[in-house]
Design brief:
This protein has helices at residues 13-21, 45-48, 57-76, 137-140, 143-151, 155-177, and strands at 30-34, 85-86, 92-93, 98-104, 109-115, 119-128, 186-191, 196-201, 213-221, 224-232. It is α+β, with helices and mostly antiparallel strands and 238 residues long.
């Protein structure tokens, strides 16, 4: 059963959200949080140049907060912060030697980074803890996933959780496949009792094969849904 929406005091939310994220990740993964609605540090000039000149203020603040969180995570690994540019498919380009993930919503930005000799990929997602509109369900969920959603006390919030978990899984696999594909490319099994989920590939996406699985964890609180997927380097090869 999903927990009810929370309303942590605003001044504690960034700290609370980081506290929700950290247990979802192995100890060797560094993580950090920033508030896009605060005053995040300015990004490196090279990072800022990746933004469109037409980018609205909201996009600029979220981008700056995400990069600031990533730079904090680098420091936690005793690395000197370096620019994180945007690749041709709009994914972050991480400095040599690390893998990572950045995510942000209106009120929260999170980042996680780890040495690439330990992990093949990381994926994070954060979403506002609000219901997913029912007209969007067919575009993100299979019939089986929708059956799970409707079995929950709040199907709309369950749908938002499912959406977030898929986003995290897609980000994690991208480090190896360099591919983005539709929401039907994975089918999820959610366990709200343990706060875990399993993402199963429904077709071959080299180097992954149909039937291969990724495993993730989630937390809900302080007004957000947070999902995380890590792919350890010692995981069985697809």
């Amino acid at each position: 059963m999903m927990p009810p929406p929370s309303s942590a005091p605003e001044f504690t939310q960034t700290t609370v959200r980081l506290g929700l994220l950290r247990p979802l990740l192995p100890e060797t993964v560094a993580s950090a949080a920033e508030d896009p609605q605060g005053t995040p540090p300015a990004p490196f000039a090279e990072e800022a140049a990746c933004l469109s000149p037409q980018a609205v203020e909201k996009r600029r603040r979220e981008f700056a907060a995400g990069r600031a969180a990533a730079h904090q995570a680098m420091r936690a690994l005793n690395l000197t912060p370096a620019p994180i540019l945007i690749g041709p498919k709009r994914a972050p380009v991480w400095p040599r030697g690390v893998v990572g993930s950045i995510t942000h919503c209106r009120s929260c930005a999170l980042a996680a980074i780890a040495p690439d000799h330990r992990f093949l990929g990381l994926g994070l997602d954060v979403e506002e803890d609000t219901p997913l509109a029912s007209d969007l369900w067919p575009s993100i969920a299979s019939a089986r996933e929708q059956d799970w959603m409707t079995s929950q006390a709040d199907p709309g919030r369950a749908g938002k959780l499912l959406f977030s978990a898929k986003e995290a899984a897609y980000k994690a696999q991208y480090a190896r496949s360099q591919k983005y594909f539709g929401f039907d490319g994975m089918e999820l099994s959610m366990d709200t009792g343990t706060g875990t989920f399993r993402a199963t590939f429904t077709s071959d996406q080299f180097p992954y094969r149909g039937g291969d699985q990724l495993h993730g964890r989630f937390a809900i609180g302080a007004g957000v849904i947070i999902t995380a997927v890590t792919i350890p380097k010692d995981a069985p090869e697809p």
